[in-house]
Each structure stands twice: as structure tokens, then as C-alpha cells.
Amino acid sequence: MSIEVGSKCQGKVTGITNFGAFVELPGGSTGLVHISEVADSYVKDINEFLTVGDDVTVKVMNVEKDGKIGLSIRKAKVPEEGTKKAERPARQPTKPRRKEHPSLSFEDKMNRFLKDSEERLSSLKRNTESKRGGRNTKRG
Fold first, then answer.
1. Which residues are paired to 24 by β-bridges?
2. Please, are residues 58 and 11 in contact by the beta-carbon 8 Å criterion?
3. 113 to each of 21, 118, 125, how far by Cα in Å?
4. Cys-Cys link to 31, which of 71, 103, 138, 140 (CB 3.0-4.6 A)?
């Protein structure tokens, strides 16, 4: 039996390490199920989920040129009804942008911009100086 990426097949756990489990596939080839591919939840100890000799259904994730086969148990499971991923909530409307005054001339807009900019700059300076202790604070 040829091993194709994306196919599901039955296998038998032949070995367990701290990073995953080796599964023998039909045809005699062996693949690795990484510990992150064993269950949907966090797996601290793989021995809590698998033991040598267990029959498992695996999905072939990749087959490398050197013959290494990557498998997944959690992706081989058929999702149960009612466990679909929660849909994203509808996007909230964003705040309306500040209206520009179309009746203002370019010079008026520029003056307004400069005034706003100076106010923001002075506010920023005031806030940063107060956090540092200000210019006229005594040292030591």
C-alpha cells in the first residue's frame, strides 16, 4: 500500500518516546506522530493517551524524501457535530472618521493642523517630563 499525504489509515503503536509515538502502517512502513499531533488538548505525558500496541487511526501529514513519514492522530478524527469552531462575531462598525470641513480653505486647514500638532506636542512633553521628574527637579 502506498502512503499518500492526506490519506487516513489504521496503524499500530510500536514505540513511545517523550516527543511522540511511532506507528506502524499497513505495508510495514513506520511513521511518527509528534506529541503535538496526538490530541487537541495539551499533552504533557504521551503515555496518558497512548500505549504500545494501541490501534490508532492516523492521517498522513507528510512524506519526506528520506522516507520519514509524519502522522497526526488529532487530524484523523472526524469532528463531531456541535463541536464546530465558534464563528467570529460580527465586526463592530468603526468610529466614524472626523469630518473635514470642506468649506475651509487650505490655509485654514493648515493653521488648524499646526494648532492641533502644537497642542499634541506640548501635551506629550508635559506627560513625559512629569514621569521623568521634570526639568527643574533636584538630583541626588
1. 12, 30
2. yes
3. 64, 9, 18
4. 71
pLDDT, one tens digit per residue, over 37-85 is 999 888 889 999 999 999 999 999 999 989 899 999 999 887 665 555 5
Type of residue numbered 62: N
Share of the chain above pLDDT 90, in %: 47
Other beta carbons within 10 angstroms of residue 51's beta carbon come to 11
Model pLDDT, residue 129: 79
pLDDT band at 138 (very low <50, low <70, confident <90, very high): low
**Residue-by-residue DSSP string for 71-136:** EESTTTSPPPTT-PPPPPPPPPPPPPPPPP-TTS-HHHHHHHHHHHHHHHHHHHHHHHHHHHT-TT
CA distance 132 to 123: 14
Phi, psi of 15 (to 5 degrees): -165, 150
How far is the C-alpha of 100 from the C-alpha of 130, rounded, in Å? 34
CA distances from 114 to 110, 123, 125, 127 (A): 6, 14, 16, 20
